[in-house]
Amino acid sequence: MIRRLLRVHDQLLPSEGKAWLVWAVLGSLVVALLDMVGIAAMMPLMLVATRAPGHESVLDRLAPFGVHGVGAGIVVLAAAVGGVFLLKTVAAIMFRWWLLGRTSRLEGLAAANMLERYAEAPYVVHRTRSNAQMNRQLDFSMSQVFGGLLNGYLMITVDALTLILATVVLAWISPVGTVAAVVVLGGVLAVIQLVLRSHQRRIGRELSDVAAEQWNARIPVVEGFRDVRLTTSVPFFTQQFRETRARQARAVRKLSILSEAPRYLLEVAMVVGIGAIAAAIQLMGDTGQMIAILGVFTAAAGRMLPTLNRLGANLGEARAATVGLEETESTLAALPAAVTTHHSPQDDGSGPAPLQGDIELQGVGFRFPDSRDWTLRGVNLRIPEGSTVALVGSSGAGKSTVLDVLLGLFAPTEGRVMCGGQDIAARPADWHRSLGVVSQDVFLINSSLRRNVAFGVPEGEIDDERLARALHSAQLDDLVADLPEGAETVLGERGIRISGGQRQRIGIARALYREPKVLILDEATSALDNLTEKKLSMTLEELAGRLTIVMVAHRLSTVRSADTIVFMDQGEVTDVGTFEEVRRSNEHFAQLVALGRVG
């Protein structure tokens, strides 16, 4: 288990190293040693307090320090014991503070690195992943791995060392009594852990499942607010959420009880253990210091009982958290290592140059990993630099898949995509740096118009002149003028405060802000009114020749001015030419033109 945990640590935190674990173990040893010294110091105190045989020797050793008499000896020894335990308490608090800070920071870094892996995963894999699973992994599983397991095992190390060293001291004081204590207390703890082990793992699995189910119940209300309200589905989804929360509460209660149950049993075992120690000492005939020894063992038991309780609780939490480790291992096995070379969304001229030149699809074929059917077959297409190309065809013809392959989101099953003579798969970051992409469904964050256009650019690095040009080209000047705070106005979650057409124009402004070499439009004008669509078409015509433009559109007016029409049918390119050439040669396209739409 520990090897698996360290392997996950190395995969998610390769730059952190494991030297800090050595310091954690050394810190555990220091805390345990202080406890051991405190327990050892109780024996001379009890000898003097009970005037047991051997107390004269203790007083003789204190005499050179000006301590004379039983009363003074008790005061000095009690102060010494109290001082050691106070020092141990301060050291334990400081160590715990450092350890929690360390593991909490690592949990945050690991979650961020896991999110980066999700973001860098192949798009074809991302499409099969549920939001609930991702959120569970990033929140619940990361907390289990670093809070429940890593932190738990380190605290188990502290407690185990404390118990071992305390046992060594007690064995020096009374071997027979120590054996009796280990048999009773150790035996009870071992039996308890053996009984609870499977129950705690099962509860851990239940908590993990409930975490995913909560997201499934929550997401429709958050993301599909309109649909939930208008279909009167509020009671259905809130009841689902209520039930999952109730299941979580029951599972947490069971885990808490199972973690706390050993405490009550160990309290009983401690009383029995003290009796067993007394009986063992009596049977061995070592009664001279019996009261002093029992006093030490009783005081030690009072110190060790919380440690035993904490040890049992940490063992239980660690077992429940193994489910999170298993899920994290499974996720890491399915995700590639994160790419560390990224470029800013805003090209400032630094770093490698973006790819540019003619774009070629050479024998491109694509099918999904879980399908035998080809979505694209033998696509050969050349897109000259600076030209405008429109992909048209009926629904399901493969147009959007061609765009996803062209964008580098889907890796071709066969063939390759070239730009300027270079394979885009060999330089994905530089290729994405060349692109400006406008999708039919533009994603907006709950922030200002300014931050949505300069998407992913730190606030201090946003170029206001470039921003103004992008807003103007996307026909957004009127919107900026109407907004109460101009470009600083917050648009709401997913742009809830603006219309669908305005949302698409913001997507166009975002693409133009990047000053791309290649502009990809996937139904980017579908939600625009005719006047705005005409103005944007004029903007695209102004950009023609300066940018390579590839578009998928159903509006006839949008594609008519394209230099090249590419007609697709059942995943194949069937005709390529000007608008008029394809209309004359392709009967299906001619029919679509007659209907006023091209797909």
From TrEMBL:
Record domain ABC transmembrane type-1: where: 22-320
Gene3D superfamilies attached to this UniProt entry: ABC transporter type 1, transmembrane domain (1.20.1560.10), P-loop containing nucleotide triphosphate hydrolases (3.40.50.300)
Assigned protein family: Belongs to the ABC transporter superfamily. Lipid exporter (TC 3.A.1.106) family.
Entry membrane topology: Multi-pass membrane protein
Domain spans labelled ABC transporter: 359-595
GO molecular function: ABC-type transporter activity; ATP binding; ATP hydrolysis activity; ATPase-coupled lipid transmembrane transporter activity
Pfam family, one: ABC_tran
InterPro entries: AAA+_ATPase (IPR003593), ABC1_TM_dom (IPR011527), ABC1_TM_sf (IPR036640), ABC_transporter-like_ATP-bd (IPR003439), ABC_transporter-like_CS (IPR017871), P-loop_NTPase (IPR027417), Type_1_exporter (IPR039421)
Compartment annotation: Cell membrane
One GO CC annotation: plasma membrane
Key words of the record: ATP-binding, Cell membrane, Membrane, Nucleotide-binding, Transmembrane, Transmembrane helix, Transport
Domain of life where this protein originates: Bacteria
Full protein name: ATP-binding cassette domain-containing protein
TM annotation in the entry: 20-45, 65-87, 152-173, 179-196, 264-281
Main location: membrane
